[in-house]
Amino acid sequence: MGWTIGERLAGAQAVKALKQGASQGDISFSKLSGIDPSDVHALRHFTLLSRLLIIVRCPPHAALSWHGTMPPKSYGASKKKVKSNDSTGIAIDDQGRMYVSDYDLMSICSVGENGACSRIPVTGANPNKASQMSKQATALLTAINAQMVSRFQHGCQDDWDHPDNRGVKADDRFAVFKCGKARYIPNPHEMEEFYRRHEIDWPYDRNGHYKLSWGVIGLA
User: Fold this and answer.
1) Could you read off the pLDDT of 29-50 as tens digits, one per residue?
2) Closest CA to 163 of 202, 201, 213, 122
3) Less Cβ crowding at N or C end of the chain, within 10 Å?
4) CA gap 167, 145 in Å, rounded
5) Among candidates 124, 204, 127, 115, which has minimal Cα distance to 158?
6) Which domain of life is it from (predicted)?
7) Quick check: is 29 in a domain?
8) What is the DSSP letter of 31?
């Protein structure tokens, strides 16, 4: 049986990532998470150098084939009539433009020498409309995106204190990058346990709904 187009693209991504310094572990984690292998490597490296914890909601597995081939679905695109298909990892807007399902930032924390995590708000200042992020948040997101194939399209969901916050759903999967190490977390329950162990506030209720005004106010 011949390879599908998606399999060929994913294979080419892996070869490119290895040439750029990614490890076989990065390739394996990429297949598990749906995140481009070059981005797995970049996020591990960035969190190692910066002593950061970066938590990401994974895209559909099928999206892996299309990173770098299609632009990631932007915040602006998500406000239009966009039909997403998890089986393909592709979203199409009402004008026929195609996007790959993007990675969603959940939270970013600095990691102290003692291992304590301190949240860095990555969001705008006004919860009711699009607004500028702080200089620290802008610089941080710019530095991360400079190394990414599929760039992050907005700030952290955990920091968006707004009724439209989608919360977390039972089939959400997550990737955790902490000081150079990557970990896959397959569901919100285990993600919540991770937050609790690291003494990070979990801003969602037992049904996955966002708890408004729990802390930071802003627009992701």
Assistant:
1) 999 999 999 999 999 999 999 9
2) 213
3) N
4) 24
5) 204
6) Bacteria
7) yes
8) H
> Residue 11's pLDDT is what?
65
Tokens 């292998």 belong to residue: 37
110 is in which domain, residue-wise? Answer: 5-197
- The 10 Å Cβ neighbour count of residue 5 is 10
Find the DSSP H helices in 63-106. Answer: 75-78
Asked if the structure places residue 204 within a domain, the reply is no
Residues 171-198 as b or e (16 or more Cβ within 10 Å = b): ebbbbbbbeeebeebeebeebbebbeeb
* Residue 206 is assigned to a structural domain of this protein: no
CB 39 within 8 A of CB 67: yes
The total domain count for the chain is 1
Reported as a single tens digit per residue, the pLDDT across 119-141 is: 999 987 655 555 678 899 999 99
Buried b (16+ CB within 10 A) or exposed e, 203-214: bbeeeeebeeee
Q: pTM of the full predicted structure?
A: 0.85
